Give the backbone structure.
Amino acid sequence: MAMDVGGVLELGQQYIEVILAIGSAFVAVISALIARGETRRQRKLQTERLRQSIDAASLEWGNAAIDTLARAAMFARTRGLQVNDGAFLANKANLLVALSTLVDRGRMFFPNLNPDNKGAEKEGAYRGHRPPILDALMWTFHELEALTREGGPSSDDAAAFIDECRRLLVSELQAYLDPRRKDEVVERYDDQTGDNRSDAIAKSQALKAKLATRRPGFQFGAEASTVSTRLQ
């Protein structure tokens, strides 16, 4: 009888060890799943913080761009009120420098589209097609560059043209930052070459065509990285 009780106790101990081992393994699996979930959550939080930081920096850039375009339009409207030619050229040069630097600073947030399809001989940041939001600044640069104090070609509505460029930039910046489109733009602007970019590209090209009509003979290959010394 004593042997039977001992056998039962030994068998029970074995079962308990098996149950404890299974329980430990189960706890380990649960702990691993919890840790994995926490890691994913932390990564998501880090990614969101990074996006918020980028959005804040791009908004700061956008505010500077909007301000510069507004000042450019006002300059075009009041060009005849400049004290003299020297003041006109100085203010014009300051605006051209501001537009030029804004284009290059904007490349940090809005890289060129399809970089493998155009400009292979250029440096990396300048390959591909400029996004519409930067086109708005470039078209303003070229419009302002051709402006003269006395008037010149199409100067009467130069401010209206610059206002159109500003509206394109504001619309594109809002679309880029709009939280309702976070899922759509999660890869950010350089991947937006589908339907959601086609409208902005069409508007940019329409402004380019209008600029070509306003400034006959103008060559569109130039960038705004260097302010032209041929100020009129």
